[in-house]
Amino acid sequence: MRWLVFAGVALIVAGKAPMALAQTPAAVTPEPLPACSVAPRPIDATLALWFSPNATPVATPVPATPLASAPEIPTGQPVDAGTQAAIETTLREVVACGNAGDFARRLALFTDRFARQFGPPSGVTAEAARAALATPQPVPATQAAAIVAIDQCRQLADGRVVVTLTLDDPTARPRRQSLEAFLVRSDDRWLVDDLVPIVTPATPIATPIARATPATSS
C-alpha cells in the first residue's frame, strides 16, 4: 500500500528537484485535525480509474512539476470567509485521513483527475489494490503529519481556488513542506485537484578557509 502513503508531498516531489537541506523547523503548535469521517470513495469506482475492465493497469498520469520560485506561484483574488473555511475543512480532513491510513476516504476528497495519480505501481493487481483500499492502516503517532498553516487562499480565473499549505511531515526531508493546493467545487464541498510542491533550492554551506600555521623560529 506504499503507493497510497503520502503524508505531505514526498510521493509527488521524489526525484524531481533539489530540496533544501534538512533543518530543525521552528516550533509551531499544529492546527487541530478533524476525524477522518468523509464517506469513502467507492472502491469499485476507484479501481475503475486505475484498471481497465480486464484488470490491466491504466497508465498513471505524471504529477505536476514542482514550483521552484516565487514568480511561478499563481496569483488570484482573495476568497470570502465561507470559501476559506470550506477549503480549510477539506485540507484538514485530507491530512487526517492520511494519518488514519484510510485511503478510500482520503481519495474521496480528491477529484477523479487527481485520484488517478495514486494508482498502484506495476505488478500490483486489482485485487491487491482492493484489499489495500478496504483495510485502513493508521500511521504511527511519531510519523503523523500536522498542518502548520493554511494561508493565501485565492480564486483563479479558471474557477479553481489555490491555497498555500505548510505541513510538518516527520517522514519527509526536509520535514517542513510547503505546497500549493488547487481545489475545485463539487456539489456541497471542495475537492483537491492538485498538490504542487514549492521547492526550495538547496543552500550551499560555506567551507571554512584553512588558516596557515605560523612558522616556528629555530
Give the tags.
218 residues, Nuclear Transport Factor 2, Chain: A, 23% helix
Describe this structure in words.
The chain has 218 residues and is an alpha+beta fold. The chain has one domain: Nuclear Transport Factor 2, Chain: A (Roll), CATH 3.10.450.540. 23% of the residues lie in helices and 18% in strands. The protein has six helices and five strands. Strands 1-2-3-4-5 form a five-stranded antiparallel sheet. Helix 2 (43-50) packs antiparallel against helix 6 (126-134). The longest helix is centred in the middle third of the chain and has 20 residues, at 81-100. It is globular and about 45 Å long. It starts with 9 loop residues before the first helix and ends in a 21-residue tail after the last strand.
Neighbour order of strands in the largest sheet: 1-2-3-4-5
Number of domains: 1
Structural class: alpha+beta
- Any idea what the CATH architecture is? Roll
Number of strands: 5
Helix content: 10-25%
Overall mean pLDDT: 80
Indicate the low-confidence ranges by residue numbers: 5-24
Counting H and I runs of at least 4 residues, what is the number of helices? Answer: 6
Q: In what range is the share of β-strand residues?
A: 15-25%
The CATH class label is Alpha Beta
Instruction: Give the ordered list of helices and strands.
Output: HHEHHHHEEEE
Return the CATH topology: Nuclear Transport Factor 2, Chain: A
